[in-house]
Request: fold
Amino acid sequence: MCSPHCPIVRTVLSCDEQSPLEARVAPLVYGLNALGVVQTTWSCEGHENECGELQRLPRVWFYSPSVAYVGLVHDYVYGLHLRLLLGREWRVTTVGQINSLECPLFALEPGEPSVNSRKEPELKGKSTSALGELHRDLSQLAKSFEGDVRTMARQEVQKIEAFLSNCPEST
Reply:
């Protein structure tokens, strides 16, 4: 696959060629799929109703046989929140499980708005609409997702290897 912003990524990652991924969520869907540990199944970039009120939150649903990977996704998202780079605290939640697939279904989605969660200078001159803030969050989440989560995974493997090297082997 090309990159998160290549012209065909929205169609390639969609299960229906007639309904490509929405542009604002496509880079995050790409990042989730790029590491080969999850399969995204559904996504939405969020939508407002005709009155400009938030009607549907952005979110991405995905399967993963690795709960460790899901933990890394959570840690990445929470790290962005702690660094005040997101307008809302995003979370990974369990949606359910499909019997034919023995993997749980997860959602990456925004929580409730946080008070002063985004640094003040980043808001100046930008729309303060709820959907606009969530779209900025989608962009921030996707910005370094693949590289950062890959780095976090390597660090976890190093910790495990260090732990194992200090454990006596059982016979």
